[in-house]
Write a structure and sequence with these properties.
By secondary structure, the protein is α/β, with parallel strands linked by helices. It is built from 17 helices and 24 strands. Helices cover 32% and strands 26% of the residues. Helix 6 links the parallel strand 9 and strand 10. Helix 4 packs across helix 5 and helix 8 crosses helix 17.
């Protein structure tokens, strides 16, 4: 039998303007735990989506057990031998454990569920993995870790050759992680191969047999974990030798404090405190689950919090975006199409929506003011369009993002919160967005950038806060002496060597 359960050859996946997976070739040995690591945007998720049938490949070959493989969807992938335990668990809380285990593959007769050997086999697998889980109890009563085990049992019972685990420890406790690792190690005895995706590098050394590093959509290398000296070696492979030369330090920084955040807490955040000066660009960098988006949402009033937010010397008591906008704070959200734009409306109609009072009176829109505002920001932000009457949904991703920026600027915001401001746009549009950010800073606007792209943070920010597990781990000042390896060490769970990296 072939030693390799999975062989990937010259795999390419293109999206408009972006090559997410670039000529990737790698092999996965049978009955091993094969870890895949890389920064956000490295191509890991796209690769996994191709394997699970969520995306079609552009070109390349995938062999499963020596035979050419492709899947129409996740169900088709599971039937062919590849199952996935996603971070967002695919269980139905209102059903019992037993019903979840057989969901989608039930044996029925005249519409009635039959008690067949299939149910017995699945329950026996569950008992072998975790005897404490009662098959008759509702899934809603299980912990996140127990729900994961239910999904693993379903995959094993289905005869899966490969189980892909995507960030399985992101939402479970230390003691549950230990139990999960024991189960993962036991899967090799059941002739199951595990592909393990994680940002927590220490986990790779605990459970991995092999590790593959991806960067910028490419396969950087694969090694036996036993041949990797330490997490620093992995970090070097992850970040490469990229040099960041675009950041230009400001000649002088105003000492006027615009924003003070004191002991901010909620279900996702723990004791967040920081200050922002006028005209300053401050970055918040971290990986998946670090708490960046939750912090941005709290500052904009969409998430509840405990603690103090002081803006322009006044304590904010808002709990809604309307109040934040009124105070002078605007958000460029992570999901521009669903949260930042009215895509069925035109550019002209979108730009003024955060400050309609500027173009209306007694409920009636002054068309000339609306046209003037649209023309001004189309020119200022270089929005590529032949008419302001174009529907926003028909613009490119980069130009849609510029319309979101225009909305925030028209709202007269003094503080702009940018959550993943260049996600899903091409390199040229990114450069234009970065120029907009720098220009706004020169005008005296304060800007917070929440990003999982290290290049983006280092290219734009004067100071950087590193986040992990809902906390600010340390603060660093941008400049030529910045240590990227230390940054990755901290955001992947390592401790800061000193107060400021």
């Amino acid at each position: 039998m072939n030693d390799y359960v999975l062989e990937i050859k010259n795999l390419i996946k293109d999206f408009p303007g972006v090559r997410a997976v670039n000529d990737v070739s790698l092999v996965i040995k049978r009955n091993t735990v094969h870890c895949i690591v890389g920064e956000n945007g490295a191509g890991k998720s796209t690769l996994i989506k191709i394997l699970t049938g969520a995306l079609d490949k552009t070109s390349g070959t995938i062999l499963l057990n020596g035979k050419e493989y492709s899947a129409r969807n996740t169900r088709d992938a599971r039937l062919k031998g590849i199952s996935t335990v996603f971070q967002e668990l695919n269980v139905v809380d209102q059903l019992t454990v037993e019903e979840n285990l057989t969901l989608g593959s039930e044996d029925t007769f005249l519409g009635f569920l039959r008690k067949t050997d299939k149910i017995k086999r699945v329950i026996n697998v569950l008992k072998s993995l975790e005897p404490s889980i009662n098959p008759k109890q509702l899934v809603s009563r299980l912990s996140v870790a127990q729900k994961q085990i239910v999904e693993i049992a379903k995959a094993v019972a289905a005869g899966s050759d490969i189980i892909i685990m995507d960030e399985p420890t992101a939402a479970i406790s230390e003691c549950e992680i230990e139990r999960l690792f024991k189960i993962i190690k036991s899967l090799k005895d059941k002739k199951v191969t595990v592909i393990y995706i994680s940002h927590r590098l220490d986990e790779i050394f605990e459970i991995g047999d092999y590790v593959t590093v991806m960067r910028d959509g490419r396969h950087v290398g694969t090694k036996p974990v036993s041949d990797v000296k330490n997490r620093l070696e992995l970090i070097k492979m992850m970040i490469g030798k990229t040099i960041f030369e675009s950041y230009v330090p400001k000649e002088s920084m105003k000492e006027d404090v615009l924003l003070e955040v004191k002991n901010l807490n909620n279900d996702k955040l723990s004791d967040i405190s920081f200050e922002v000066q006028k005209g300053e660009v401050v970055g918040f960098y971290g990986l998946l689950g670090a708490g960046k988006t939750e912090l941005a949402s709290a500052l904009f009033g969409t998430d509840r919090y405990r603690g103090e937010i002081i803006f322009s010397g006044k304590k904010l008591l808002y709990n809604s975006p309307d109040k934040a906008i009124e105070a002078g704070i605007a958000l460029v959200p992570e999901e521009r199409r669903t949260q930042g734009l009215f895509t069925i409306l035109t550019i002209r109609s979108n730009i003024p929506v955060m400050n309609m009072s500027k173009i209306s009176r007694s409920g009636f829109i002054n068309t000339s003011k609306e046209l003037k505002a649209a023309k001004e920001y189309i020119v200022k932000l270089k929005i590529a369009t032949n008419t302001m009457e174009k529907q926003v949904s028909k613009l490119s991703g980069g130009n849609q993002q510029k319309v979101v920026f225009a909305k925030c600027l028209f709202a007269d915001a003094d503080l702009l919160i940018l959550d993943e401001p260049t996600r899903g746009i091409d390199v040229g549009a990114k450069s234009e967005i970065y120029n907009i950010i720098r220009g706004l800073s020169k005008e005296g606007k304060s800007i917070l950038i929440f990003s999982s792209e290290l290049y983006e943070i280092l290219n734009n920010c004067d100071r950087i806060f590193l986040m992990c597990d809902g906390r600010i781990k340390t603060e660093i000042k941008n400049g030529p002496a910045i240590n990227m390896e230390e940054i990755i060490h901290i955001v992947t769970g390592g401790e800061a060597i000193c107060e400021s990296v």
